[in-house]
Amino acid sequence: MGKWLVKSDPETYSFDDLKRDGRTVWDGVRNAQAHIHLRAMKAGDPVMVYHSNTDKAVMGLAEVVRAAYPDSTDKAGKSVCVDLAYKSTAAKPATLAAMKAEPKLAEIGLIRQSRLSVMPVTEEQWKVLMGMMKG
DNA sequence: GCCAACGTTGGC
DNA sequence: GCCAACGTTGGC
After folding, report:
1. Residues near chain B strand, CB within 7 A
2. Backbone angles phi, psi at A68, to 5 degrees
3. Distance from residue A34's CA to nucleotide C8's C1', rounded to whole Å
4. CA A63 – C1' B2 distance (Å)?
5. Where are the alpha helices (H) located in A1-76, listed in sequence order?
6. Which distant-in-sequence residues (6+ apart) come within 8 Å of A91 by Cβ?
7. How far apart are CA A131 and CA A15, in angstroms?
8. Residue A95 buriedness (CB in 10 A; 0-12 / 13-18 / 19+)
C-alpha cells in the first residue's frame, strides 16, 4: 500500500471543500509524471492534501476510494483521475517552512520537485509529517 | 529529433 | 510582482 501527497490550489478546490463534500473526483491533472503516480494509487491508500500558494501546508488526510480511471475533463482521453474521500483534519498544518527545516524531509518530492502535483511519500517521511500535524 | 520560445506553476 | 523550474509547442 502506497502513501501519497496531492497538491491543490485552495482557491480552486480546498481541503475544506473536500470536508464539506465528503468525497470528490480528483481530476484535472495533466502532468505525465503525476499520472504515473495516480495510476499507482489503490483504494484504501492514505493521502495528504497540501495547499499551495496561500497556506503552503498539509491541511489533513484523505483516502483513495476509487483507483485511477479516465478523466472525463480531458477530451483527448489521455488523463486519469481518482476519487478521494475526506478523512481527518490536521490539528496543526505541516507548513512548507517546517518541512524545509526538517532534515528528514530533505528528499520529499514537494521540495525537490516543486511543480509536481501528485507524488509518493515514503514511510519515514509520512511519520515525520504525521508528527508535525499533531501540534 | 533537436532546441528555442513560450506558458504555467508556485515560492518568495 | 518577480523569477526559477520545468513542461509544451512548433520551426527546422
Report:
1. A 7, 9, 52-53, 56, 96-97, 100, 114-115, 117
2. -55, 135
3. 16
4. 43
5. 15-21, 32-40
6. A133, A134, A135
7. 19
8. middle
C-alpha cell of residue A58: 498539509
Q: For residues A107 and A91, what is the distance between their CA atoms, to the nearest angstrom?
A: 24
* Residue A100 pLDDT: 95
pLDDT in tens, chain A (135 residues): 899 999 999 999 999 999 999 999 999 999 999 999 999 999 999 999 999 999 999 999 999 999 999 999 887 788 999 999 999 999 999 999 999 999 999 999 999 998 999 999 999 999 999 999 997
